[in-house]
Amino acid sequence: MRAVVLVGGFGTRLRPLTCHRPKQMLPIVHRPMLDHVVGHLVDHGIEDVVLSLGFRADTFAAGYPDSMCAGARLHYAVEPEPLDTAGAIRFAATHAGIGERFLVLNGDVLTDLDITRFVEFHDSRGAEATIALHKVDDPSRYGVVPCDGGGRVLEFVEKPVPGEAPTDLINAGTYVLEPSVLARIDDGRRVSVEREVFPALVRDRSLFALDGETYWIDAGTPETYIRVQLDLTEGLRGEPVPAIAASARVAGGATVRRSVIGPEAVVEAGARVEGAVVLAGATVRADAVVEGSIVGFGAEVAAGAHVGPCSIIGDHQVVAAGARLDGVKQPADCP
Ligand code: GDD
Ligand code: MG
Q1: Quick check: CB of 33 below 6 Å from ligand 1?
Q2: Do 262 and 283 meet the contact criterion of CB atoms below 8 Å apart?
Q3: Are strands 324-326 and 312-313 parallel, antiparallel or unpaired?
Q4: Between the CA of residue 60 and those of 23, 57, 69, 80, 93, what are the distances in Å?
Q5: Using one digit for the tens of pLDDT, what is the confidence trace for 128-182?
Q6: Which pTM value belongs to this model?
Q7: Minimal-distance CA residue to ligand 1 atom 7
Q8: Helices (H), 149-241
Q9: Do 145 and 153 meet the contact criterion of CB atoms below 8 Å apart?
Q10: Alpha-carbon radius of gyration of the chain
């Protein structure tokens, strides 16, 4: 079976880290997000992956020069312009010559979904398309998917008004699609799978869904980008992954709690890093504090500075000595 992985979005919620690279090329505990997503496919025997590319497609070719990722062969489908999710699926599947039922993944989702069982469910229902589901506390930032007892989808509501979602089961961003779905997507214009294609399939009663009942996270926001990494390092998904890279340097008198410290990063004496991600080559100077935040590649938090909850420091930025940031993006937008 082949898979299309959508990685062409702008990653705006993770700016400024995504000014020059798609979010799927950001590290999740020292390895690109895409490695984790594709590695999970390989675990289920899928070794032929079509990347649906748009924004900064060049960074994938640079990151995977031999077109191999986590044991899978990559096929690159670069959109001439952003076609939105369904337009992207159609373009990529056509580009790669896909003619049989195939898998589609949102490229920012990390999950332990049993793909084998999921595909079996799709086949058993004779579905035209099947969506994996996940239960969340606040469905309003997702696609919401009420179903009947047999798994037939009754409605697809993308990003409902808070408090008005018909169920807490949301679209987990993994689909099995029959090739007939491609014929439903107009060529050459932006088409959303969530807003156009799924509602049309609901009207034809050919859309099904299955709750994966397993670990799931969309790592595309600052809060979840941190959380997914803490989950891995704290053993929520099997053996804990080491949080501090072997080439990082944490001084004896520094405090690092529930945080990921990337390769060649430095945390000096007296500094405190807590609930944070410090990317490769960044420096947290003496007596500085970083909490609940992300420090970008090669950035510097100067002595005594305080980078407080939900801040993001961009690549090679310097937070001035003694400065206090709280919920700040530095720079505020892409140059
Ligand atoms: N190639 C291409 N072209 N990819 C795109 C485009 C495009 O025009 N637009 C978005 N993508 C990619 C993104 O890179 C990402 O991997 C995926 O499509 C989903 O886009 P997001 O921007 O992350 O969407 P979302 O998180 O707000 O919502 C989606 O995911 C939720 C689950 O995480 C929707 O599918 C929701 O229904 C779903 O619940
Ligand atoms: Mg997302």
Answers
A1: no
A2: no
A3: unpaired
A4: 11, 6, 10, 16, 18
A5: 999 999 999 999 999 999 999 999 999 999 999 998 999 999 999 999 999 999 9
A6: 0.97
A7: 84
A8: 198-203, 222-233
A9: yes
A10: 21
